[in-house]
Write a structure and sequence with these properties.
heterodimer; A: mainly alpha; two-stranded antiparallel ribbon; 36% helix; flat; B: alpha/beta; Amidase signature (AS) enzymes; eleven-stranded mixed beta sheet; 11 strands; globular
Chain lengths: 95, 484
């Protein structure tokens, strides 16, 4: 086992996912299967190979720093589950 | 032949000759949707009123002689591209009520070209899947056999074209999500080079792999769609500012003397015998076109799936962090913020999306980065190098698109690894950033479509159109339609 049920719970916390005991059990088994499969990569010696971060090697892409029209507060908040005035409202953050 | 069955170029000819109107075409397609949609379920949303109103506008322009590249052509959009004022769900509960305040660049381009949008198509949730079974809105069925999956993740877009519920459609392809469903539904699908088509307004899955492309009824239509979709976009920093050729000019040109690369690693165990036979026949067809087949090697093929299942989930875990119940979409009630995040994401995402977020979060977590993401990115460089070497020896590469024909609904839902294996021939393309096309190359004895895939070097979509068009003309695959 590469990943214990306890570690699965910790990863879920990092990902901000609540998981049920059933999901924890299922994910532990499935993630272990997948990670075991991925271990295949260790057959390859990649010493000195530059990691590929981009498919076509584009470098920084700049444009002129001009002010253009933005969407605006009203439209931005239109999709919010709880938008009030100019703000997104959320449950309390601090005690 | 009914209007709804026609290709884009057939409809264009009829419009130009004054034999039909945008309204007549749109009505024909909407009637077809009414007749078959209950069986197939290609769409999350049919845009009937919007389509009829756009068609009426198009007819006014056509009457004035203003005929554009897609005037009056009914097009369906995968529900992953943002449409201003029209809900865009990405097949997810977490976005079920999201109404974008802007259009994706491809939507703007298609609209400017005169296209009539008939609906938003079904898809695997956040494009994560190979069968369209992970959609929050229920599965799409394969028009050729309603017990089977249409492929995925763009299964709705593929099924809609195959069932004649639109003339062409838009999909997105991160590991095969255009080509695999195109093959399983018996139509043409192209994944362009990374950077060829703007991703602005495409809801992100894995940003270094995602690319938008068309589904069409034939190769010429694919070229017509690519002419509209391709090109630089100042709003998308990975789109590439190089000239876009007229792709239509490549259709119908011969391929005498071309070298067709056959990668030996793609003809291994696990490939269905009927698929293998159809691909071997395709190679012969290319030879009859005057091309020569040459054996090539892509030595790192067996590592593609492992690389993909680190890179795609890692990027997804980062991209999907934005779904937190604050700015848009679904929110679960809770009295504290952290609890709200966790409950929102628990209830808002389906199992496959959670699984991939978990893999990606783990692979990027402290202490594991070098072992997983860095290692995968290094092997990705080797995979790209394989293709660069191969294209020194051939013009295009020919492979099966999928190892098997469409599988049954429910057959692979409990085994993620088995499901992932259905993309084994399409994933390398995205990792290398090169373009690929899938087109029909025959049917199994039980009547399921089989697809052949062509691959070319970066920005060589023209070569793909040329090879695919030559193949299409020579092979003369029987024009069957699904019995619906």
């Amino acid at each position: 086992m590469k990943l214990t049920a306890q570690e699965v719970e910790y990863v879920a916390h990092l990902a901000r996912l609540e998981i049920t005991p059933q999901e924890k059990e299922k994910f532990t088994a499935q993630l272990n299967d997948i990670l075991l499969y991925i271990d295949k990569l260790n057959e390859l010696d990649t010493k000195g190979v530059e990691p590929m971060s981009h498919a076509i090697g584009v470098t920084n892409s700049f444009r002129e720093d001009n002010v253009v029209e933005s969407i605006g507060t009203e439209k931005t908040l239109a999709n919010a589950p709880d938008g009030r005035g100019e703000f997104f409202r959320v449950p309390k953050v601090i005690e | 032949m009914e209007l709804y069955q026609s290709t884009i170029h057939e409809l264009q000819d009829k419009i130009k000759e004054g034999k039909t109107t945008a309204t007549a075409i749109t009505e024909s397609v909407l009637q077809r949707i009414d007749a078959v949609e209950e069986k197939v379920h290609s769409y999350i949303r049919v845009m009937k009123d919007e389509a009829l109103s756009a068609a009426a506008d198009a007819d006014k322009e056509i009457k004035k002689g203003d005929i554009k590249a897609l005037s009056g052509i009914p097009i369906a959009l995968k529900d992953i591209v943002c449409t201003k004022g029209i809900a865009t769900t990405c097949g997810s509960h977490i976005l079920h009520n999201f109404v974008p305040p802007y259009d994706a660049t491809v939507v703007e381009k298609l609209r400017a070209a005169g296209a009539i949008f008939v609906g938003k198509t079904n898809m695997d949730e956040f494009a994560m899947g190979s069968s369209t079974e992970t959609s929050y809105f229920g599965p799409t069925r394969n028009p050729w056999d309603l017990e089977r999956i249409p492929g995925g993740s763009s299964g709705g877009s593929a099924a809609a074209v195959a069932a004649d519920e639109c003339a062409a459609s838009i999909g997105s392809d991160t590991g095969g999500s255009i080509r695999q469903p195109a093959a399983l539904c018996g139509i043409v699908g192209m994944k362009p080079t990374y950077g060829r088509v703007s991703r602005f307004g495409l809801i992100a899955f894995a940003s270094s792999l995602d690319q938008i492309g068309p589904f069409t009824k034939d190769v010429e239509d694919c070229a017509i769609m690519m002419n509209v979709l391709a090109g630089y976009d100042r709003k998308e920093s990975t789109s590439v500012n190089i000239e876009v050729p007229d792709y239509r000019q490549f259709a119908g040109q011969d391929i005498k003397g071309w070298k067709i690369g056959i990668p030996k690693e793609y003809f291994v165990e696990g490939i269905d015998p009927e698929v293998k036979a159809a691909i071997e026949a395709s190679i012969k067809t290319m030879e009859k076109c005057g091309a020569q087949s040459v054996e090539i090697s892509l030595p790192h093929t067996q590592y593609c799936l492992a690389v993909y299942y680190i890179i795609a989930p890692a990027e997804a875990s980062s991209n999907l962090a934005r779904y937190d119940g604050v700015k848009y979409g679904f929110r679960a009630p809770a009295s504290e913020l952290l609890d709200m995040y966790k409950k929102t994401r628990m209830q808002g995402f389906g199992a496959e999306v959670k699984r991939r977020i978990m893999i990606g979060t783990y692979a990027l977590s402290a202490g594991y980065y070098d072992a997983y993401y860095k290692k995968a990115s290094q092997v990705r460089a080797l995979i790209k190098r394989d293709f660069e070497e191969a294209f020194k020896k051939c013009d295009v590469i020919l492979t099966p698109t999928t190892p098997t024909p469409a599988f049954k609904i429910g057959e692979k839902t409990d085994n993620p690894l088995q499901m992932y294996l259905s993309d084994i021939f399409t994933i390398s393309t995205n990792l290398a950033g090169i373009p690929g096309i899938s087109l029909p190359c025959g049917f199994t004895k039980s009547g399921l479509p089989i697809g052949v895939q062509f691959l070319a070097g970066h920005f060589q979509e023209g070569k793909l159109i040329q090879a695919a068009s030559a193949y299409e003309q020579k092979a003369q695959i029987e024009k069957r339609r699904p019995a619906l």
